From TrEMBL:
It comes from Enterococcus asini ATCC 700915. GO terms for biological process: enzyme-directed rRNA pseudouridine synthesis. CDD domains: PseudoU_synth_RsuA_like (cd02870), S4 (cd00165). This is Pseudouridine synthase. GO terms for cellular component: cytosol.
Length: 238
């Protein structure tokens, strides 16, 4: 079930704020009855009309995308930069990213038109593991990475304990490659965590989301999630 104004907005009729105005003005009907309150929720089975014209509700779709570096996790950009939906020219549905990856971060990003799915996966109380691999400036070891496992406080926020794996260390070049698994999604969280232990991130990639991995995808490629994968993610988010 989704809020009526959200469904209208997803159908491309109007912005969510404008849809709220339509509802309050009595211009929207659900199953033949005027719905003039903002708390109304609807399902895909409900007939929704705006000014007596039925709206088309899209079937939910879910995609796994390998986001390249230098791409914005958004559906548009006022500076004209490349956005993730530019890689889906043949997808008819109005999809959008679930959460975000930084402009200079590559890796696994989910896109959907399913509001309930997106909300479940991005809500702070739901816990789905996300695995990142970072190239770091400095020599990583158990001592300097230990604070990551105890729940750090960054920018006034107490973070949940993370898990790490040291993949490689180049003592001569003073660089390291470390995998970090977290289930939160604050802005720049992984970069801030490594910065806090004296290991600035030089390159970052998200390789896992729950049980999902990039598999054989290359940067800029995507695939549809199976029903089982969608159900699995929703189950993990409980």
């Amino acid at each position: 079930m989704e809020r009526l104004q959200k469904v209208i907005a997803h159908a491309g009729i109007a912005s969510r704020r404008k849809a709220e105005e339509y509802i309050l003005a009595g211009r929207v009907k659900v199953n033949g009855q005027v719905a003039n309150e903002l708390g109304v929720k609807v399902s895909a089975k409900d007939l929704i009309e705006v000014d007596d014209v039925p709206i088309y509700q899209e079937e939910p779709v879910h995609y796994l995308f390998y986001k390249p570096r230098g791409v914005i996790s958004a559906v548009s950009d006022d500076k004209g930069r490349k956005v993730v939906t530019d890689y889906f020219p043949h997808v008819a549905e109005r999809i959008y990213p679930v959460g975000r990856l930084d402009y200079d971060t590559s890796g696994l990003l989910l896109l959907t038109n399913n509001g309930n799915f997106a909300q479940r996966l991005t809500h702070p109380k739901h816990q789905v593991d996300k695995r990142y691999v970072a190239k770091l400036k400095g020599v990583a070891n158990q001592k300097n990475l230990y604070p990551l496992t105890k729940g750090m406080k960054i920018e006034g926020h107490k973070l949940a304990p993370a898990r790490y794996e040291i993949i490689s260390v180049d003592a001569k070049a003073e660089t390291s490659v470390v995998a970090l698994t977290i289930h939160e999604g604050r802005n720049h969280q992984v970069k801030n965590m490594f910065q806090a232990v004296g290991l600035p991130v030089q390159k970052l990639k998200r390789e896992g989301y729950g049980e999902l991995t990039l598999g054989n995808l290359r940067p800029g490629e995507y695939r549809k999630l199976s029903r089982h994968e969608v159900s699995q993610l929703l189950q993990q988010s409980k």
